[in-house]
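Re: the multi-chain job from yesterday

Posting the exact lines I submitted so nobody has to dig through the queue logs.
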Amino acid sequence: MPYGSSEKAGDRPSVPVAIKILVAGGFGVGKTTLVSAVSEVRPLRTEEDMSEPSSLVDQLDGVERKTTTTVAMDFGRISISDDLVVYLFGTPGQRRFWFMWDELAYGALGAVVMADTRRLADCFPSIDYFERNGMPFVVAVNCFDEARRYPSETMRSALNLTEDVPLLLCDARQRTSSRDVLVALVEHAVARLSDGPAVTPAR
Amino acid sequence: MTSGGPWPFVLRPDGGERVVRPYAVTAGRTRPSGASIDLVAQVSVVRTMGAELAPQLVSDLGPEHLRLLRFCRARVSVADLATEIDLPLGVVRILLADLRERGLVTINQPAASGLNDVRILREVADALRKL
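And the result, structure tokens for all chains:
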């Protein structure tokens, strides 16, 4: 059965446009904060295959055959109109979660990769992932009060970012600041549509 | 993880634990039937729920199916449903596929064209600026 069309004319309005945006980055970098600054955030539970590192931590006595565990993502929604909705998915950035990203990335507009200058390397896997998939992304450096500030150029070169990838400083606690990050991502996606070849969804 | 034991209990919104495990809700199935169901696919009920629902359609449905049906009276995304009903995404997909098979709900993939439509993206950027 083909998707993408409403069942019968006049039944319901046409299928709304869903804009999916990923918010990625290491643990504690401010993904939940950013998503909750611009939307009502709720935990979305999903299952993951249990990997080596977590099986050392999770108590497996009596459930040796248990091979999945539950992971919560941050889920936020911004309704622009009845037919246009932005969905935000905050996801852990470690490589072991990449299989989840494949699904999330499918049909996504793009991603915000959050970075903390004290643990810059934590966002490398996320940047790798989106570069490989050719998905538009911006890097948002969350300016923690206690973290040292660096010039943008220094951070760009530390992250080995190409010219065209926007890098922004943000305070994820501030609604306006988090909003600006999302706006920058959408504008970046528009710019890529306008100059480059057509963007094809990941996968 | 919960501390109540080794079983993957499902937390209820009130903080309590449901004793029924996810795989029991899905009768052991781990994959939904039929076409894949996107996270942001839109679900809506086809028939008006209530007394007129044919018994043969619902007789083998579980309480979680019926809860899902109640939540999708208004058009709603799969991700929204999963958070509302407080079950893992994989379980929700399987239950939704059951409902689709019975013709009780329609599941529409979101219009993918939006991603390549500069006009729509500009509208999104403008709306976000007003947040």
